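User: I'm putting together notes for a lab meeting next week and I want to include a structural view of one of the chains we've been expressing. I don't have a solved structure, so I'd like a prediction I can at least talk through. The sequence is below, exactly as it appears in our construct file.
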Amino acid sequence: MSLGVRIDEVPSEKYHSMHYKSRPTDARVRHNGSLTSHAARLCLILFTLALGLSYSSTAHAYSWMIRHGYTGCVTCHADPSGAGLLMPYGRAQSDLLLRTHYTSDMPEEAAKSSGTLWGLLTPPDWLLLGGQFRALGMTSKSDGQKWTSNVVLMQADLAAEARWGGLRVNGSIGVVQSSASRASLFGSVVSREHWVGYAFDDDAYYLVRAGRINLPYGLRIIEHTMFVRQATRTDINDTQQHGVAFAYSGQLIRGEIMGILGNYQLSPDAYRERGYSGYAELKAAERVAIGLSSLVTHAQRDVYLQTADTRQAHGMFARVSPWSALVLMAEADLVVHSPQGFNALTGYASLLQADVEALQGLHLTGAAESYKQQAGFGQSWALWAGTGWFFAPHADVRLDFMRRSDVVGNGRFDSTAVLAQMHVFL
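Assistant: Thanks for the context. Below is the predicted structure for the 426-residue chain, given as structure tokens.
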């Protein structure tokens, strides 16, 4: 018996768009042995994923915390590259720095409600516990089509990490609406991360892990449908892979390198990618960080192109906070696919994102992004703007407006979406 999702049992566009509701006519591009069909298939699947949902992802990873001087992640998160389960220090900072305080005097200490389950549960020192619930209401349309509305359960996860000295045992389990998630254990039951690791000092400056891990690459952001996350397949929603990773978290340099063994929650084995992914980031100033990323994998049968493929992604990223109210984040990636028997498909993805904290806990955000799959194809682009409010302990809401134009084969598909989210973490 094989756990997880069998690609040959699930249409590829459904498999890669957990909650998509609409797609262009004749969306299933058939393989006809030509390079154009490979490119159109890849572009089409990316489009159906983008059109279906352009919402935030499952774990809270706020790269804009650099405004407070936090260029690293290991002090707040169990994952040394950010996102997911919070350390006690991270819980305290989420209460002190993230949420709105409705008094003129800022607290000097975190409230008891910053603890696990709003302070109602006090785990022993060796145990981290957490959980997240995220729901989405979306109204969207493709040009020429009617508006449609959906309510989506995006996440209902529990997570834990046990620590004995340097030993770390970490895992999560949850449910989603779809049975076609790449994180599926069986049906709609998912495990996004599960790994065993060892930290070589108390501050986890050196951490070795083995298991299902977020791919270390680029900006660790929660918007998993951004082109830079789609094109490189490195979001923190469900594209985690099994492998072995080594992370270093220093004062000036941090980074992680991972040997990818494949996603063993999907089958058959021909669809599993093997290779490496990694990044290194330099703290250039108190609120300035710049980094490089690289990824190379090979699959006997790529889930998009349906043929053997070696894919590469290499890029740069930066986080800059010229003053505490403003954070600018940028990423640019070269993306290369080398389908067996064909010339390479060389394209790029880019992102410029701004976050303005108008007052503590209230964020105004905007982004511009672009994607080009290969020479001869048009350029896809997207603009979005939104606001997020961390209005209470362990809770935030978010409203986004998105306008997106995707090149699919020889056509272009334009879409508009308005999204409202509610996020609560334990």
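A couple of points you could mention at the meeting. DSSP finds four helices and 20 strands in the chain. Residues 5-425 form a domain with the Porin fold (CATH 2.40.160.10).

User: Perfect, that's what I needed.
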